């Protein structure tokens, strides 16, 4: 039996869990706000209104405050005393450093996926890539970004390393709003498709070194990608 055929890792949701048993009100609010921050619906610098959120979720202010604390622990928001909670803003230099680390983590996910992915996991990665190709033709950049997140999530799952997937996801969520801005640059979508194709080819061939290199280069901000990022950031 090959390593790919013997892979038995469990599917995870986008928060690294197979479900949410025993989830508290604060956890539910945190997850909803995390999704809004990751998607860009809540942009960096946005103020989070405690009373409005309590009314929106039909709860008291206590679980909202706890959700803010959890988000602050994940470096997604800043707690500013009387000013309340604000979606974290990150400097360009810090973001470049975070992308460098992100590239290494995602590269390792791809490396392990090349060694461990079973046929079903590889098929899911390829199917999501096909959807990305279809979406790219529609010109819907925001939908492309969302499906692109699914592609990377599928690679995390195929790594069969839950801890690595969770750490990669946490960092991705911190830079997600800025990563979305890069997607809107004119050259980014065709480059993404080409680079994803290289990652898939390496995973399909079980070439772990090539998969790691392709994913690392895809995520890292180098050359023109760095210039595009700085333009989008500005």
TrEMBL record:
Domain HTH gntR-type: 23-90
Keyword DNA-binding among UniProt keywords: yes
Superkingdom of the organism of origin: Bacteria
GO molecular function, one term: DNA-binding transcription factor activity
InterPro entries cross-referenced by the UniProt entry: GntR_C, TF_FadR/GntR_C, Tscrpt_reg_HTH_GntR, WH-like_DNA-bd_sf, WH_DNA-bd_sf
Keywords: DNA-binding, Transcription, Transcription regulation
Annotated stretches, region: Disordered: 1-24
Protein name in the entry: DNA-binding GntR family transcriptional regulator
Organism encoding this protein: Xanthobacter flavus
């Amino acid at each position: 039996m090959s390593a790919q055929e013997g892979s038995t890792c469990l599917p995870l949701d986008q928060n690294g869990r197979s479900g949410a048993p025993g989830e508290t009100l604060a956890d539910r609010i945190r997850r909803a706000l995390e999704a809004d921050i990751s998607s860009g619906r809540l942009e960096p610098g946005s103020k989070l209104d405690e009373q409005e959120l309590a009314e929106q979720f039909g709860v008291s202010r206590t679980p909202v405050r706890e959700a803010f604390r959890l988000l602050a622990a994940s470096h997604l928001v800043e707690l500013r005393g009387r000013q309340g909670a604000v979606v974290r803003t990150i400097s360009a230099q810090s973001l470049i450093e975070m992308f460098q680390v992100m590239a290494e983590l995602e590269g390792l996910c791809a490396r392990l996926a090349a060694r461990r992915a079973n046929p079903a996991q590889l098929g899911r990665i390829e199917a999501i890539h096909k959807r990305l190709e279809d979406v790219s033709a529609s010109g819907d950049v925001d939908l492309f970004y969302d499906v692109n997140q699914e592609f990377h999530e599928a690679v995390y799952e195929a790594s069969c390393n839950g801890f690595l997937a969770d750490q990669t996801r946490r960092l991705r969520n911190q830079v997600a709003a800025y990563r979305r801005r890069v997607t809107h640059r004119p050259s980014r979508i065709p480059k993404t498709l080409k680079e994803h194709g290289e990652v898939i080819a390496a995973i399909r061939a079980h070439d772990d070194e090539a998969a790691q290199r392709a994913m690392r280069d895809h995520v890292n901000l180098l050359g023109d990608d760095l210039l595009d990022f700085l333009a989008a950031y500005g």
